[in-house]
Design a protein that fits this description.
- The structure is a single chain.
- The protein is an alpha+beta fold.
- It has two domains: about 60 residues, Winged helix-like DNA-binding domain superfamily/Winged helix DNA-binding domain (Arc Repressor Mutant, subunit A), CATH 1.10.10; about 180 residues, GAF domain (Beta-Lactamase, 2-Layer Sandwich), CATH 3.30.450.40.
- It is built from nine helices and eight strands.
- The protein has a six-stranded antiparallel β-sheet with strand order 5-4-3-8-7-6, with helices on both faces. The chain has a two-stranded antiparallel sheet with strand order 1-2.
- A hairpin with a 2-residue loop joins strand 3 and strand 4.
- Helix 2 packs across helix 3 and helix 6 crosses helix 8.
- It is globular, with a radius of gyration of 21 Å.
- About 30% of the residues are buried.
């Protein structure tokens, strides 16, 4: 993967370190040095130096010759979400939504042709796929992804769908490109999207957009149910209105949060330091 940078300020060592972190996923939690080098496309000595550096920084640990990520990696993602202010705004609303529906709710944003989960409030139910902060899925196979894809311009949509998924799942073959385009047009018009066992058997969800202060769709929020327990009719009739109301409240509160001046005051700062 070396030599990707086109600009004079591109730092290849940093890119390689990020490649190492990205090589770990649900299917590759503990990995040997050789496995990391192969997954990241690096020579073993380079991979070793990067792993030891990441271990010293606390992002990786080694046990019996195998490397795993540490929870500190989560700080990289939560820092992004925290900088938006979105999680702080959304959390109480999502918790209330889960209390009213008895079902899990998540928020995701678009990253290439995938969605990445940035917030989640879950209930203890057995479901086909494990979801946590940072999990990525192909956008076109999820209700949240459809909402986010539907918000793109035709050119941006085409460029996004041309990008290969990094979720590590087999491509969805139950729908043609033309059918997806038609579905996204419908999603755009009605303001919500349904995914009915497209991602995995038993997983059914409905999602709606979350907008920033300019009205731009910046995230999607969903309610996920087990298909064997909750019918599509119940999902759309009972849960969707609550989800729409919650997403509207989050969008409005987030817009207000963005419009306010923010100053961070750290322990030990005086009032004069914050002005």
């Amino acid at each position: 993967m070396a030599g990707r940078g086109a600009g004079p300020d591109f730092v290849e060592a940093l890119a390689r370190g990020l490649d190492v972190l990205s090589s770990f996923d649900a299917a590759h939690r503990p990995m040997t040095l050789s496995e990391v080098a192969s997954a990241a496309g690096l020579a073993r000595p380079t991979a070793r130096r990067l792993l030891l550096t990441l271990e010293e920084l606390g992002y990786v640990r080694s046990t019996d010759g195998a490397f795993t990520l540490t929870p500190k990696v989560l700080s990289l993602g939560t820092a992004y979400v925290g900088s938006l202010g979105l999680w702080g705004v959304a959390r109480p609303h999502m918790e209330a939504l889960v209390g009213r529906t008895g079902e899990s709710s998540s928020m995701a944003q678009l990253d290439g042709s995938d969605i990445v989960y940035v917030a989640r409030v879950s209930v203890p139910k057995i479901i086909a796929l494990r979801v946590e902060i940072g999990t990525r899925f192909p956008a076109a196979q999820t209700s949240q992804g459809k909402v986010l894809l539907a918000a793109l311009s035709p050119d941006a949509l085409a460029q996004t769908l041309d990008q290969p998924s990094r979720a590590g799942l087999p491509p969805y073959i139950g729908r043609s490109d033309a059918q997806l385009t038609d579905e996204l047009t419908e999603v755009r018009a009605r303001g919500w999207a349904l995914a009915d066992e497209e991602l995995a058997p038993g997983v059914r969800s409905v999602a709606v957009p979350v907008r920033d202060g300019t009205g731009t769709v910046r995230a999607a929020m969903n309610v996920t149910v087990h298909a064997a327990e909750t019918s599509t009719d119940t999902l759309l009739t009972d849960h969707l209105p609550k989800l729409l109301r919650t997403a509207g409240d989050v969008s409005a509160e987030w817009a207000l949060w963005q419009s306010r001046p923010h100053v961070e005051v750290r322990p030990g700062d005086t009032a004069a330091d914050a002005t």
